[in-house]
Amino acid sequence: MEIQMKFIDLENILDLFNEKIDLRDKKDAVKLNSGTTSIHFNDVCFSYLHLKPILNHVNFTINAGQRVALVGAPGSGKTTIIRLLLRFFDPNSGTIELNGSNIKDVQQNSLRDIIGLVPQDCDLFSGDVMTNITYGMSTTDDKVTDAAKLVDIHDRILDMPDQYSTYVGERGQMLTREERQRLVIARTITKDANILIFDEPTSNLDNIAAAKILRSIKETYSDKKHTVLIATHNLSMAVDCDRILVLHQGEIVESGKHIDLIRLNGVYTRMWQQQPDHDEENICMPGLSGHSINS
Ligand SMILES: Nc1ncnc2c1ncn2[C@@H]1O[C@H](COP(=O)(O)OP(=O)(O)OP(=O)(O)O)[C@@H](O)[C@H]1O
C-alpha cells in the first residue's frame, strides 16, 4: 500500500536538530543529482561565530560507496563536520564538494534529499509511529516494517496500543530514548538516501543492542551503492569500516584502516587502549595496506 506524501517543512526538520538555517540558495543553484555520491572536504576551516577555530584545514575524500568512520574525542568537531556537510553553516574557508559540486552551488533541498541523518538527539515529532518513520517520504508499508525489523523495533510496535498508529507524544516523550533512537534509525533506513550519516548512532542503546543494530546497518549498506559516514567515539563501530578518519582538536591527524592505525601507535591507538571493552582480536587482523587521507 502506498503511503500518502505528507508535507513537513524544512524548518521543523531542522528544529529537531536544534539548528536554524539562515543560508539561502544562490539564484542559479543547481539540483544535486541522486546516485552514488563522493564527499570531498578541501582545506575546510570553521569557527562558530568567528570565535575559536573548531576545524583547521580539514582535508579528506570519501569515495562513492565507501563506509567511513569519523572518530575523535568528544568536542573534537565530528558533529560540526556533519553540520557543514548538511550546509547548516558554511566554512570560513575551503570547500565541500559532493560528486565534484560545491555544496554552496546546489539547491539545499536536493542536498538534504540525498542525505539521511541519524542525529545524536533522536527527538521525534508529535504524531504516530508510522508518520515518524515515513517523515514525509513516499514509501510503502513493507519498506517501513522491513526497516523496523532491521532495528528490532517492529515487535515492540506491534505490542503498542495502536501498533503503527500509536501516538508517541510531544517530541516522542511517550517512548524511551532507546525506542526513539531505533525509530530514527528506521526512518533513515527507509529514506534509502545516497549518503547515510550516523552521529553516535547507538549512544542510547546498551552494548548488545548497539552491536546488533550496527550489524544490521553494515549488512544493509554493504552494497557499495551508499556512502556511509559514522561519527563516533565508540571505536568498535569503526573497526571494519573501509577507512577511519581520526579527528583531533579539529584536525584530521590520521587516516586508514584499523590495523594500520594501530600500527601507527598514535592518537587512534591511544583511543583504542582507552576503550573499556574492545575486542583484542581486532588488533591482530592480518596485514592491510596503508591508506592516505585521500585514498
Ligand atoms: N553551536 C555552537 N556554538 C558554539 N560552539 C559550538 C557549537 N556547537 C559545538 N560547538 C563547539 O565546537 C566544538 C566541537 O563540537 P562538536 O559537537 O562538533 O564535537 P564532537 O566531536 O561532535 O563532540 P561530541 O562527541 O561531544 O558531540 C566543541 O568545542 C563545542 O563546544
From TrEMBL:
Q: Does the keyword Lipoprotein apply?
A: no
Q: Write out the GO cellular component annotations.
A: plasma membrane; vacuolar membrane
Give the source's domain of life in one word. Answer: Eukaryota
Q: Which SUPFAM superfamilies match?
A: P-loop containing nucleoside triphosphate hydrolases
| Domain ABC transporter: from-to ranges | 39-274
Q: Which family does it belong to?
A: Belongs to the ABC transporter superfamily. ABCB family. Heavy Metal importer (TC 3.A.1.210) subfamily.
What does the UniProt entry say about where the protein is found?
A: Cell membrane
Name the PANTHER family for this protein.
Answer: ATP-BINDING CASSETTE SUB-FAMILY B (PTHR24221), ATP-BINDING CASSETTE SUB-FAMILY B MEMBER 6 (PTHR24221:SF654)
- Name it: ATP-binding cassette sub-family B member 6, mitochondrial
Note the topology in the membrane.
Multi-pass membrane protein
Q: Keyword Coiled coil: yes or no?
A: no
Q: Which UniProt keywords apply?
A: ATP-binding, Cell membrane, Membrane, Nucleotide-binding, Transmembrane, Transmembrane helix, Transport
Tell me what organism the protein belongs to: Phallusia mammillata
MF-aspect GO terms: ABC-type heme transporter activity; ATP binding; ATP hydrolysis activity; heme binding
Question: What Gene3D superfamilies does this protein's entry cite?
Answer: P-loop containing nucleotide triphosphate hydrolases
